[in-house]
Amino acid sequence: MKKILVIGLLLALGGCASQLCHQSPDSEACRAERLLYENDLLQAKILISTGNEEGYELAHALLARSAPQDRHGETDFYQALLMIRQGPQPSEVLKQLQKAQKKGHPHAIALLYKIHHEPYLIEKRDPLEAERYRKAYAQLDVALSGYPSFEKALELVSQLVEEPPQLLPLPCPARCR
pTM above 0.70? Predict the structure, then answer.
């Protein structure tokens, strides 16, 4: 159930995706480019959120392919999540999140807050830095509109960085034995 909720949240976040198209935005080629970009991001999000290590290489490739079209930091954010899943590399994760933050990605800012507030991935809590990220979030258009609230964004990033539940193998029906 929790996995379905996370995947649903990732689908909702798909609206954050953006693309660059050098042709008419309504052209067939531009629509196809946008669909491929959105598909790559969606597949990468699912692979990362399910926690299946066998999918991490593909998730990395999908994020790399979609990165040139991303203007809002979504690929940077998910690259940071992938790094966390593969084993904390705090300095690299922070660099990735800061790239996403500069592009205004709300969940990257919420995760930066979490990192400095708890602390998470770092050894020492930094309340001043955490507060700086909370204020940065408050200045985003999404925060000014009220969706997602800072608390909801924190809740989401907390779920995304938790270890995903292990999938149990499905029982084999009697006819396949």
Answer: yes
